[in-house]
Write a structure and sequence with these properties.
This protein is α/β, with parallel strands linked by helices. It has helices spanning 4-32, 42-55, 86-98, 111-116, 119-124, 126-138, 143-156, 172-183, 196-199, 203-207, 246-254, 270-277, 311-319, 326-329; strands at residues 69-72, 187-195, 214-226, 229-240, 261-264, 285-290, 322-325. InterPro entries: HAD-like_SerB, HAD-like_sf, HAD_sf.
Length: 336
C-alpha cells in the first residue's frame, strides 16, 4: 500500500533532484547570457532583438555577414572621459616630461598653464590651445617611438579618482557587447575623435579590436630614411579630425560600407549615428550611453566640457535611438 511514509520518502528523494535541476538551469542561463553585466531592461532587449533579427537566416531583416558593420566611439562610450579625455591627460604629462628641453614654456601659453597646474587658463585656451599641446607633444618622433611612449605611459599612469590604470577603466557592459556582436558575425570598428595612433597600441588587447579597425584623428607623417632604416616621422600638422561630421567621412574612407549599428555618447557622435541609422533598410541600431551614475562613475550630459550630450540626446527622442541609462541599465560599470 502506498502510505504517507512512502510519500515522505519520495519527496525526500525528489527534492534534491528538483533543486539540482533548478540550479543547473539557472547556471546554464547565466552562462548563455551574452550580456551578463546588463540589466534586463529596454536597451539590452533592443540589442538582443536587433542582433537576432539581422543574423538569423530566414528573418526579413537578415543581413549578410560582410554587411554587419558596427562602429563605436571610444571616449565616454568604451572607457572613461572624465575628468578629462585620457589622451589630454597623456598630453599634459608629456608637457611636463619635455619641459626641461623647453625653458620658454614657463612663459608661453598654453604650456605655462599646464606647468602651473592652471586648468582654468588651459580650458580658456580652447580648441586652439589644446590642439597646440597635441601637436607639440605627439610629433617630432617616429611612429614606433610614439607607440612606445604611449604604451609606457599607459603602464604607469593612474586615473586620479579610481587610482587604476586607464585601460582598466573600460566599461564591462560594452566589452561584452563588442564580443556579442563579433560572435554573431559583426565586424566591430572604433571611430573616435581621439588620436588613431594613441589608440592602436592597446585596443586589440583591451577591446578585441585590431589596429586596422581603429579610425581616429591623425597628424601628418612623412617617410624618411634614418640611419639607413625606413621610418615614418610624425609632423606637427593636422591630417584629419575624426569628430562630428568627420566621422561619417572617416567611416566611408576607411571601411567603405555604411554601418548598420552605431554606439556613441556625445554630440560628437551625432553625425555618425545619423549616417548609420537614417538610411532605410536593412534594420539599423543607434545607441547612446548616457552618464547618469555619479556614484559608480560620473553623471553629466548637457553641461560639460568633455562629452557633452545635448543635441544628440534631443535627436534620440525623434529618431528612436536607444539611450542607455548607466545607473539603471548596467549591473556594473568596470570589470572587478
Amino acid at each position: 500500500m502506498f502510505t504517507i511514509r512512502h510519500l515522505i520518502k519520495s519527496a525526500r528523494d525528489v527534492i534534491p533532484v528538483v533543486i539540482a535541476a533548478l540550479f543547473l538551469t539557472a547556471s546554464a542561463y547565466a552562462q548563455s547570457d551574452p550580456l551578463p553585466s546588463w540589466n534586463d531592461t529596454g536597451p539590452k532587449q533592443a540589442i538582443v532583438s536587433f542582433v537576432e533579427r539581422v543574423s538569423k537566416q530566414g528573418s526579413t531583416d537578415f543581413v549578410l555577414e560582410p554587411e554587419r558593420i558596427a562602429v563605436f566611439d571610444n571616449d565616454g562610450t568604451l572607457w572613461v572621459e572624465h575628468p578629462m579625455y585620457t589622451q589630454l591627460a597623456f598630453a599634459l604629462d608629456r608637457v611636463k616630461t619635455l619641459a626641461p628641453q623647453h625653458p620658454e614654456w614657463k612663459s608661453v601659453q598654453p604650456f605655462k598653464a599646464v606647468l602651473d597646474g592652471d586648468m582654468k587658463t588651459l580650458a580658456a585656451s580652447g580648441e586652439k590651445g589644446l590642439l597646440e599641446l597635441i601637436m607639440v607633444t605627439h610629433a617630432g618622433m617616429t611612429t614606433e617611438d610614439f607607440q612606445k611612449v604611449v604604451t609606457d605611459w599607459l603602464s604607469t599612469a593612474r586615473d586620479p579618482r579610481f587610482k587604476r590604470p586607464y585601460t582598466e577603466l573600460v566599461y564591462q557592459p560594452m566589452v561584452e557587447l563588442l564580443s556579442y556582436l563579433r560572435a554573431n558575425g559583426f565586424k566591430t570598428y572604433i571611430v573616435s575623435g581621439g588620436g588613431v595612433e594613441f589608440m592602436r597600441p592597446w585596443t586589440e588587447k583591451v577591446y578585441g579590436v585590431p589596429p586596422e579597425q581603429v579610425i581616429g584623428s591623425s597628424i601628418k607623417t612623412e617617410f624618411k630614411m634614418q640611419d639607413d632604416m625606413p621610418t615614418l616621422r610624425r609632423l606637427p600638422e593636422v591630417n584629419f579630425i575624426d569628430d562630428k561630421a568627420g566621422k561619417p567621412v572617416g567611416i566611408n574612407q576607411e571601411i567603405g560600407r555604411r554601418p548598420i549599428a552605431a554606439f556613441g555618447n556625445s554630440d560628437g557622435d551625432l553625425e555618425m549615428l545619423q549616417w548609420t541609422t537614417m538610411a532605410g533598410a536593412p534594420a539599423r541600431l543607434g545607441m547612446l550611453v548616457h552618464h547618469t551614475d555619479a556614484e559608480r562613475e560620473y553623471a553629466y550630459d548637457r553641461k560639460t566640457d568633455f562629452g557633452r550630450l545635448d543635441k544628440a540626446l534631443d535627436a534620440a527622442a525623434i529618431t528612436g535611438w536607444t539611450v542607455v541609462d548607466m545607473k539603471n541599465d548596467w549591473k556594473q560599470i568596470f570589470k572587478n
